[in-house]
């Protein structure tokens, strides 16, 4: 197997040997360069604990939502009958649902019982002032080493539908993920008890019978021909619709007597229900519909929208929607099917094990009939793409009802999957000429804050053939955004993403929301952005989102606002796990020239939990 297949799995401080070697390198580097740092380590450490004490005092005066996440491997077979070793939190699949209110302080204690490092990312949270808690190994932190613990501390400044997942290895698709809902009682446009009677979470996943790392290693080989692994099944809230033993591969043990029970919801006739739908898939775009019912869209990612009716909604990996559904008040059926169908047009080969029609059942209470009928199948798109953005309008007089502001700074990038001879034709993901690999031993945020030098990065040959520099490792595309101008507390960045690939890419921006002002799909070689397209930008009634789809053979243009009160290094990456693991990621370094000292202390706080320095 090619050596490059193993590099991305070494998340910063992964494994005992790597921890020891890297710690020694960091300790040596710190001593060598201590004279050049503004703070000595002892000063940083003491001030870090001072800040933590201050935070603990502040936390005691607000509502604290505290969770303990024990991460370990367990074998499960109930999702669809196939026994699989999973990475689970508290033995749950999906993981525990986090519920909190805006303004709460969230404390999540992660205890790593794996034999490899892990991490936790809170998808969609702005992490205002806590970039060090963003959970991206090699960027904002080192992975949490085996046998170690770490506490994520976040003040919740938003409300809406979110989710959490590991940002290490393939832990996300092996089970380490779960839903998260933040309420803003009395302030949200759509209120429980007034606009709807109850709510349910639909956590959608594509499911692979082989371990995620095995599937990734296959993808990064000649055998895959660059085709992404096609899933074996699909799940709603951790359950398949039926047992798959009759069609699964003989390599995977499957029990035909396993109690595989599909997910079911009970809706009282005439009542209104809010469906919070999360696509946590590694690869699949999923089209959601409910037989005999209309979906009323009220939220896209965590942004509330004016209500609009659709028959089905395509949801890309990482995206979330809320729909209000009024349970049919009368009719000939007492049970209807909630469909979450994978868009197989986005797959490059047929998997005979896969039934792409993911299903759950909705029982309509107070009706004696038990007939299950199939409703009209609404016409779906042939390509993977967003729900038509023209259907989504921000809530009137809400925080996002103003036009999209003009940009201060434009960044243009190209994203592409390339099979290069020097890496054995493995399909690595590139943004411009860089294919991301975690900065092992020297996370970029720690380097930017002067806690460690980039030279401490464990040297590895880079995919793009670059050498590590004194600023960043060779596999880091980091765009600096200065916030030195005292007269401007914020800036608007226009990001143009060109996509010459045959497949669409759902891109997620950490720490910020984006306005999608143009999305275009063309023909090969003709879909790139041109300045003349500025006249076609849509800047009115645009709903901000943290995950958007860049169409195949085309481009997307987004704008997002950065501010001096949320400095840090923020990842921007494709949310198809295979593309992310293969390097399709870049970063924005916001306001590092104007950092509040507390940012340094937070990073120091992180290191105090993982590296024991001599006094």
- Percent range of helical residues: 10-25%
Strand content: 25-35%
| Unreliable parts | 1-49, 57-61, 367-380, 610-615
- Mean of residue pLDDT values: 82
3D shape: globular
Query: What about the largest sheet?
Result: 6 strands, mixed
**Total beta-strand segments:** 29
Describe this structure in words.
With 615 residues, the chain is mainly β. Helix content is 11%, strand content 32%. The protein is built from six helices and 29 strands. The chain has a six-stranded mixed sheet, with no helix packed on it. The protein has a five-stranded mixed sheet with strand order 11-19-18-13-16, with no helix packed on it. A five-stranded mixed sheet has the order 21-20-23-27-25. β20 and β21 (427-431) form a beta hairpin. Residues 1-49, 57-61, 367-380 and 610-615 have low confidence and may be disordered.
Compact description:
This protein has 615 residues and is mostly beta strands. The chain has helices at 16-33, 41-59, 212-219, 444-448, 577-581, 597-608, and strands at residues 64-76, 84-89, 98-101, 105-112, 121-123, 149-155, 160-165, 177-183, 198-207, 233-236, 264-268, 272-279, 286-290, 295-300, 303-310, 313-315, 320-326, 335-342, 357-365, 409-419, 427-431, 478-481, 490-499, 505-509, 515-521, 547-550, 554-563, 568-574, 585-590. The strands form six sheets. Strands 10-9-12-17-14-15 form a six-stranded mixed β-sheet, with no helix packed on it. A five-stranded mixed β-sheet has the order 11-19-18-13-16, with no helix packed on it.
């Amino acid at each position: 197997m090619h050596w490059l297949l193993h590099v991305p799995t070494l998340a910063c401080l992964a494994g005992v040997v790597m921890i020891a070697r890297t710690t020694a390198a960091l300790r040596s580097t710190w001593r060598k360069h201590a004279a050049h740092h503004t703070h000595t380590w002892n000063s940083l450490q003491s001030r870090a604990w001072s800040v933590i004490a201050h935070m603990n005092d502040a936390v005691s005066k607000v509502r604290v939502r505290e969770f303990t996440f024990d991460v370990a491997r367990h074998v499960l077979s109930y999702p669809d009958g196939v026994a699989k070793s999973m990475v689970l939190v508290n033995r749950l699949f999906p993981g525990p649902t986090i519920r909190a209110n805006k303004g709460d302080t969230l404390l999540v204690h992660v205890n790593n019982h794996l034999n490899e490092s892990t991490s936790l990312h809170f998808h969609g949270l702005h992490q205002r002032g806590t970039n060090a808690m963003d959970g991206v190994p090699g960027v904002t932190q080192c992975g949490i080493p085996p046998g170690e613990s770490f506490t994520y501390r976040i003040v919740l400044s938003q409300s809406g539908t979110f989710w959490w997942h590991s940002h290490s290895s393939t832990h996300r698709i092996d089970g380490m993920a779960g839903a998260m809902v933040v309420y803003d009682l009395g302030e949200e446009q759509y209120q429980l008890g007034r606009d709807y009677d109850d709510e349910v979470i639909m956590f959608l996943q594509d499911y692979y019978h082989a371990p995620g790392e095995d599937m990734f290693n296959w993808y990064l080989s000649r055998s895959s021909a660059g085709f992404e692994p096609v899933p074996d099944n699909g799940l709603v809230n951790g359950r398949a619709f039926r047992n798959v033993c009759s069609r699964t591969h003989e390599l995977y043990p499957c029990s035909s007597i396993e109690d595989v029970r599909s997910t079911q919801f009970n809706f009282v006739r005439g009542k209104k229900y809010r469906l919070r739908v999360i696509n946590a898939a590694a690869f699949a775009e999923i089209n959601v519909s409910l037989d005999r019912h209309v979906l009323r869209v009220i939220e896209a990612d965590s942004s509330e929208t004016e209500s609009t009716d659709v028959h089905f909604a395509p949801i890309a990996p990482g995206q979330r929607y809320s729909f209000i559904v009024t349970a049919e008040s009368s009719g000939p059926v007492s049970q209807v099917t909630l469909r979450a169908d994978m868009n197989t047009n986005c797959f490059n080969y047929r998997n005979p094990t896969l039934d792409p029609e993911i299903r759950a059942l909705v029982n309509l209470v107070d009706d004696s009939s038990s007939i299950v009928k199939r409703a009209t199948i609404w016409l779906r798109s042939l390509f993977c793409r967003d729900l038509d953005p023209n259907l989504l309008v921000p809530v009137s007089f809400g925080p996002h009802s103003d036009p999209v502001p003009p940009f201060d700074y434009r960044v243009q990038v190209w994203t592409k999957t390339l099979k290069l001879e020097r890496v054995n034709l493995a399909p690595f993901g590139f943004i411009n000429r860089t294919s991301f690999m975690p900065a092992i031993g020297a996370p970029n945020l720690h380097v930017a804050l002067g806690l460690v030098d980039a030279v401490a990065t464990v040297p590895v040959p880079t995919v793009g053939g670059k050498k590590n520099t004194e600023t960043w490792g060779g596999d880091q595309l980091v765009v600096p955004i200065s916030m030195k101008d005292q007269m401007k507390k914020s800036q608007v960045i226009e990001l143009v993403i060109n996509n010459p690939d045959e497949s669409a890419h759902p891109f997620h921006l950490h720490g910020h929301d984006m306005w999608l002002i143009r999305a275009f799909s063309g023909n090969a070689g003709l879909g790139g952005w041109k300045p003349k397209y500025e006249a076609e930008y849509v800047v009115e009634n645009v709903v901000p989102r943290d995950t958007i789809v860049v169409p195949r053979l085309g481009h997307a243009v987004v704008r997002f606002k950065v501010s001096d009160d949320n400095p840090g290094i923020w990842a921007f990456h494709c949310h198809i796990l295979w593309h992310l693991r293969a390097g399709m990621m870049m970063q924005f370094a916001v306001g590092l020239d104007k950092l509040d000292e507390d940012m340094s202390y937070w990073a120091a706080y992180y290191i105090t939990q993982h590296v024991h320095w001599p006094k």
